[in-house]
Design goal:
With about 325 residues, this protein is of the alpha/beta class. The chain has helices at about 70-75, 100-105, 120-130, 130-140, 155-165, 180-190, 200-210, 215-225, 245-255, 275-280, 290-305; strands at about 15-25, 30-35, 60, 80-85, 90, 110-115, 115-120, 140-145, 170-175, 190-195, 230-235, 260-265, 310. It has 11 helices and 13 strands. The strands form 3 sheets. A 9-stranded mixed beta sheet has the order 7-1-2-8-9-10-11-12-13. A two-stranded antiparallel sheet has the order 3-6. The longest helix is centred in the middle third of the chain and has 13 residues, at about 155-165.
Length: about 325
Amino acid sequence: MSKDTGTNYTGKEKGLVFHIIHGSFVDGYGIRTTIFLKGCPLRCLWCCNPEGQTGHPELKYTASNCNGCSKCIDVCSKGAIQINPLLEKAQIDRKLCDNCGKCIDVCYTGALEYFGTYYTVDELFEIIKKDEQYYRSSGGGATIGGGEPTFQSRFTYALLKKCQNNYIRVAIDTCGYTTTEEQFKILTEADLLLYDLKGLDLDSHMKNTGVANEIILSNLKKLDDMGKSIIIRVPVIPGLTVNKKNTETIAEFLSRLKSIEKVDLLPYHTYGTIKYEQIGREYMLKTLLNAQELTDDTKRVFERYGLNVQLGG
């Protein structure tokens, strides 16, 4: 863990957070506090945190909490909200909504909220510090994920150093798509990297995530050469990221890296589909089959290549 007292940060830098988990066991070693930051350069088809993709607060609408009171309609100057006469609940025209938040102010049932809250580095550090006793007893620490934490690079770096300067270890959960020195510096100074690998084939990666994978693979090789502590995370999405044909290729690639401490296989699930409804988007992969059998097969292949593999993160 590096200690840095010379950086020009005040602790007042603000970052946009959409979720905080205390007591996580799946985001690195030991007991961890995981901070989810908004903003990501990828648009993965299977993304279970779509509310983490954009870099601004988003209107969250939970229809089951709506009682049809119409208060939101009265304050919406854009005419973006109407009452569905069949359901007797609000419905939002996202093309008209300007995300102003006035409807949130008058919604007393919790049907309308924001995905995304601003914190300063100091405010967020105080939240992280509350769990310090658990880090000490378990070998854990803080994990900064998203979204993609390097998307808010100045804030993430300041929070990283604030934690490290107070002897709290930090893991960065990253897609690896960093294109600036400031972003890459976050990866080089983290105590642990949770590094996503969403495929080796360029065309498939472009189709599945919206970006090419050359930068991701190049950064991974650089970080491996530096001897960084790395946990690879492979989402097992049938027919997209992993299949019976490419499993050997992925395993062989990972086996050549020197700093991989383990590989987490993340089976496909649909737990995040409700979030798409809450932000007015369609989830595209609803018909995919259960990935457990493919995950088990992938684990066996990876282990043949000498990789330390765990299921579920």
